[in-house]
């Protein structure tokens, strides 16, 4: 047990201040959030110590306990929302969030561009919880159109192009070749070229035939062999040859392409002899040892130990 201390009459025994709330002890000044989005604080009030009047004689009394009362104060969580269209509080949260926007009951992601449901041709964007909308600026003299596809012009203007006049929406071909299509839109002419497919032949084989808008590949005769670009050698279809590596064998295909395959060698002895110009090493001619070639059954001294004698055995 801790050592006891003698207390004079009237001495106060300090008690550590605490708050008890729903069976949980809280420190003074502690803040926490209760279910239902209520913010609580532990506050401690220290009562004043009574004083003796002048001339009074203290009587013998038991030591007083200085009780510092803890009190829990709770209030509804106050949320500061710095945006105009916040999203509802996420699960387990109390305050709305400005990461996204809630516009006309629809949740919008940050940076989302959309049009309002009233179809007034406005364009809106969600930025930092705020929704900003812009309406189109119509040129002077235009009027609102009942069609959502055209917000400004209710009387589309005609187009004058190369001395001719076209009505709004008219389509025509440039120079009558059918390769370029033009359209009159609100007094402006927009032309586009017919898309052409990607050709799988070299550019020097492209050919534009009369009456066509796009080039096509020239008809090439069927290949009779294979030509190698590096040395100009031509091989007939079905010809086999080695391009320089004795372990590689090539064949000329019927379509003029070259197909090559490598030969895999299997060593059947521990010291095979490699013959220049031959793909796989030879195990029947003898042995190689320390860069030297020895015939079958030939004996020779060891390069590592002069007291040892070696023999070449071909198996």
TrEMBL record:
Record flagged with keyword Ion transport: no
Primary localisation category: secreted
Pfam families xrefs: VWC, VWC2L_2nd
Alphabetized PANTHER family for the sequence: VON WILLEBRAND FACTOR C AND EGF DOMAIN-CONTAINING PROTEIN
Residue ranges constituting the VWFC domain according to the UniProt record: 17-99, 99-160, 157-218, 224-284
Lineage: Eukaryota, Metazoa, Chordata, Craniata, Vertebrata
Gene3D superfamilies linked to this entry: 6.20.200.20, Complement Module, domain 1
Protein name: VWCE protein
Cellular compartments annotated: Secreted
Organism the protein comes from: Formicarius rufipectus
GO cellular component term of the entry, any: extracellular region
Keywords: Glycoprotein, Secreted, Signal
GO biological process, one term: cellular response to virus
């Amino acid at each position: 047990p801790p050592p006891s201390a003698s207390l004079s009459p009237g001495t106060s025994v300090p008690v550590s201040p605490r708050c008890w709330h729903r069976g949980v002890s809280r420190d003074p000044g502690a803040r926490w959030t209760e279910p239902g989005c209520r913010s609580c604080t532990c506050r401690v009030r220290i009562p004043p110590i009574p004083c003796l009047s002048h001339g009074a004689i203290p009587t013998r009394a038991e030591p007083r306990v200085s009780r510092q009362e803890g009190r829990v104060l709770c209030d509804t969580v106050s949320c500061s929302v710095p945006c105009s269209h916040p999203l509802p509080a996420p699960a387990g949260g109390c305050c709305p969030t400005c990461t996204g926007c809630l516009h006309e009951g629809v949740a919008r992601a940050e940076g989302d561009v959309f049009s309002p449901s009233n179809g007034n041709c406005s364009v809106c964007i969600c930025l930092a919880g705020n929704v900003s909308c812009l309406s189109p600026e119509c040129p002077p003299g235009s009027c609102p159109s009942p069609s959502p596809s055209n917000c400004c012009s209710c009387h589309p203007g005609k187009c004058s192009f190369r001395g001719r006049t076209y009505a709004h929406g008219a389509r025509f071909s440039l120079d009558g070749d059918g390769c370029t299509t033009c359209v009159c839109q609100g007094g402006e002419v927009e032309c586009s070229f017919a898309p052409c497919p990607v050709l799988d032949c070299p550019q020097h084989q492209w050919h534009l035939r009369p009456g066509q808008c796009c080039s096509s590949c020239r008809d090439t005769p069927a290949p009779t062999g294979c030509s190698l670009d590096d040395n100009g050698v031509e091989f007939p279809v079905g010809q086999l040859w080695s391009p320089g590596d004795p372990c590689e064998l090539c064949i000329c295909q019927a379509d003029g392409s070259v197909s090559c395959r490598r030969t895999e060698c299997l060593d059947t002895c521990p010291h095979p002899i490699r013959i220049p110009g031959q793909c796989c090493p030879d195990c029947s001619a003898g042995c190689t040892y320390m860069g030297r070639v020895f015939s079958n059954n030939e004996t020779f001294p060891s390069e590592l130990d002069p007291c040892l004698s070696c023999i070449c055995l071909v198996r």
